[in-house]
Amino acid sequence: FAKLGGMIDITTGASKFTEPAEQVLLALKNGVSIDNITFSSDCHAGLSVVDEEGKLVRLKTAPMTENIKQVRDLIATGKVSHSDAFKLITVNPAKNLVLKKKGRIDVNMDADFTLFNSNFEVTDVIARGNILLKDGKLMKKGSYEL
Q1: CA R_g for the chain
Q2: What is the pTM of this model?
């Protein structure tokens, strides 16, 4: 499907049969373009935890940190560049969702930025012209609450 131009999404935060970074490497090895792959976390989606008999034990939420973890893991393999790895959570999802002003830094694009330190930990967030997070500290609450 992806080789024909379709977009495939690899879930990072819910149940998974292999590590998402490994799935990307497998897709690339099989001729899929990095431009046809996205990561999504299913952030805060309800996930079932079952016991050995398949009975529901509890519900938990999918974590929101898995996308960046998988990008970091992909970069650590040395097989994918930083810019290509970040496409999975920036330009590719924006393209797939037809968000024409999102996903990349350019003239006439929305100026939303997430800045990371060398360990890929979020340090700063700027969205809609507002500094929301600065040096790891929440700056503004309300509709932009993190």
Answers
A1: 17
A2: 0.79
